[in-house]
Each structure stands twice: as structure tokens, then as C-alpha cells.
Amino acid sequence: MSTRTLPLLFINLGGEMLYILDQRLRAQNIPADKAKKVMNDIITTMFNKKFLEELFKPQELYSKKALRTVFDRLAHASIMRLNQASMDKLYDLMTMAFKYQVLLCPRPKDILLVSFNHMDAIKDFVKDAPAILGQVDETYQQLIEMYTPLSNGDFQLIRQTLLIFFQDMHIRVSIFLKDKVQNSNGRFVLPTSGPVPRGTQIPGLIRIFSCAGEELTRLQFHNGGNYSSALREGSFEIFGDRVTKLGTNMYSVSRPVETHMSGTSKSSAQHTKVNAAPNPLAKEELNLLARLMGGLEVQKPGSTDTGFRVNLFATDEEEEEALISRPDELSYGVINIQATKDQQANAELAKIMGEFTESGDQSTCGSSKGDDLLAMMDGL
């Protein structure tokens, strides 16, 4: 497992989230000033310096539920609100879109180009806000410094880590189904045509060499596809042509997107129960999440700001039906972080704890975890 995967996962999922929200804000005719505020607030929070410092530290990926909690907080960093069903759909669309992009990358290193496509789009969202633009540019530089020196093997390990994270997610997405790149069971269809990866040749030729390295003979075979020569190398600089279209915005108002649980996913969910036994990794994972959340400056709507709700479904009835029909195991609840003593001893911790909504089973976060969180937060 690669310890450098989390920043790429976060930035690419965040980029997909912004694409979807931008599409829904326009589709619901939200006033331009409010829509702009939502996008700016989310991007400001997403590229918070303290948060990114924690994000870029080498660390293992944690569970889908913990990551979902971070994006739940991020999506509500402004005056916009989503209910549970819409948040579930948003997260499904984000994860399936990025999973498809990872699967289609010709080379593992191209995951970085996908990330830059998302960063380019995010930069365009805040082109009229110089302060936020500066935050995004700093993150560009961090990505370049951390990832461009990596070897092909390092990027292959990152790709494997991402695919392991996504391997049990098989949500059907209408765009993918209509384009016939996803089957009815939620699994993607990989193409057997198009340009080959950079640095490789079109398959179809076998060359046989002698022990001295001299070519003896050539054999040709049918490769079963319709391949073409590799495209030119995309730019890994802050400004430049990425060449690949993976990671660009695939949404539009005229093309609504629906998600559906595949039969296999429903079946597996019904047979997957939450393990009640203590998880030895849960304590460390929760502390990591709290450290990350400590860097998030979530803004509360001011007295002059009027909050509004965004629905990712066509109607409220569809949204309610989706909430009822979704298996409980696949509706990620927000992790409850509970401090059990002396909350007033640390002002920042008290502020963070006040932003969390207490919910769920108290057994998931016992007193010892709360004590650890208090001790850890004192060092922030």
C-alpha cells in the first residue's frame, strides 16, 4: 500500500464533487451570487493550508466511512445543505467517476495528469478570487514537488492502492450506462482500442533474439483490438496541455445523471454486517480523521446569508425513495467523535467538537478514544 495516495484521492474526488455541485446549482437555477459563494467557500476549505499540511503527510488510506465523513463536512462548508440521500448520491458519483478514470489511465503515472485536469478546473472556478487562487497554486507546487520525482513503480503502487480502495464499489451511473462503458452489474467495460500507453508499441509483433542479442525472426499476430500509436506526453507543469481528457468535466445541465445500486452490490450489502468487535486500527484511524478535521475551517451561514438545499435527484419524491431503499450498510453515517473530559481546556478542540453532529452508536467511539483525541488536539 502506498503512503502517498491520500492527497491524489482527496483532490480528484474533490474535483468531481465540484463538477457535480456546479451542474446541480445551475440546474436548480440557484442565483449566481449564491452559487459562486458555495463554490468559493468549498474550495477555500478544501485548500486550507493547515488541512493540506496534514493531508500531504505520508500516511495509509483509511476507511470509506472516514473519507466520506471528510467530504460530508466539506460539502457543507458553505450555505448549501444536502440531505442524506443526496449526499449518498453525490459521494457515489464522485467515487465511480474517479474509479473509471483510474481504470482508464494508460500508464499509472497518468493519474497525476488526471489530478492536474481536476486542479485546472478548480482553478477556473475561482479565477476571480485571487486569495483562493493563491491557495490552489500552492497546492499545484506541492503536487509537482511530491509526485513528479516518483518512479513508475511508485505510481503503480499508488494505482494499486486506489483500485483496492474502489474494488467493492459497483454503483451504476446513467452516463456510463448510456455510453456503454458500464455493465448492468456496475462493472466497467475497458476498451480494446485507442492509443497505446506512452513508451510502448502497438501489440501484434513478436521478436525472437539470439543469446548474443541479435534479432533472429519476427512473428505477427492479431491483437484483437484497434490500437493506435501513443499520444504525445502531457504536461506535468502548472500550466500546460494535459493531453488526456480524463479528469475533465463530463457533466452538463442537459445530461442529468442518475445512480442505481447494482444487484451484486445490494446482495453483498445484505450479507455484510458491521463487525461489533473492537477494531485495532479504529483508534488510529479516528485520531487521523480528527487531525485532518482540525484543519478544516467550516464556515457558518452569517446573518445576511440565506441557506438553501440542493437536491441531486429530479424530484423530492425520488430523493425520499432513494433514502428509504438504500441499504443501511451503504449509507455512510458521520463518525461520532466524543470528548469526555475537560472540553473547555482547549478552545480549538471545543470549536471542532461543536461542529460535529452527535449521532450513531456510542460504542463506535468510546471514552478512551475521546481521551486520546483531547490529548492529540492539545498539540494542534
UniProtKB/TrEMBL annotation:
Recorded source organism is Cyprinodon variegatus
Protein name (Swiss-Prot/TrEMBL): Organic solute carrier partner 1
> Which Pfam families does the record match to this protein?
Oscp1
Lineage start: Eukaryota, Metazoa, Chordata, Craniata, Vertebrata
Q: Which GO terms describe its cellular component?
A: cytoplasm; plasma membrane
InterPro entries the UniProt entry points to? OSCP1 (IPR019332)
